Amino acid sequence: MNDDLRTVDPANRTAILVHYYRAMVGRADVWRMRMDTTTNWAIGATAAIISFALGNESVPHYVVSIATLMTFSFLLLEARRLTFYHLWQQRVLLVEDGLIRPALSLSLSRGGDRQSSGSEEPGAERVAGVDLSQALDPHLGRTVPTMPLSKAVGRRLRRVYLYLFAVQVMAWSLKLGIHPTPATSLAIAVERANVGLLPGEIVVAISVVAALIALFVSIARGGVDRDAA
What predicted TM-score, i.e. pTM, was given to this entire model? Predict the structure, then answer.
């Protein structure tokens, strides 16, 4: 790729990189909007189901779990969308680091020191020691995300979905405590958590384990860095 790039006129090389940058920003924006759409679906479904469950005492408590299952499905879908968003965002940041940042630094240094006008300008493929063509080479012609799905799940849990699951757990606990009548003790609320032949104690234990797993994934795989979403 380097030899082919250097045969192009410097002005054309810069134009190619500018259009490439704009295309990557456009793609990143599209996937960012898709992620926001999924988040809105999860929030809307949670609000609707919780309102329905708490608004009628004849509605069984496990209806809240429908919101949990739907939210989990949205989480997986949004995590996959994050992997594609991260791919395009990586390329945007690469051009910013390799071309735009050094170009701005060069312009500022020229404003304060006119003696640099006689030196040879670095080409668009190498600015401030960054071989941009070499850095972009693994990306071109590929649309395979580089972020593992487990890390994407952890990030979305940490940013949005952990809070949604927490709201659902609180709504479920409130449902057990007030319907059909206010519970006078914790044991009564736990007993109401039964689902069919499954005792309430086991249902509560499963819920606690699931919450701990979600918390662990958000901490272990949801680390935030410069290109987090």
Answer: 0.81
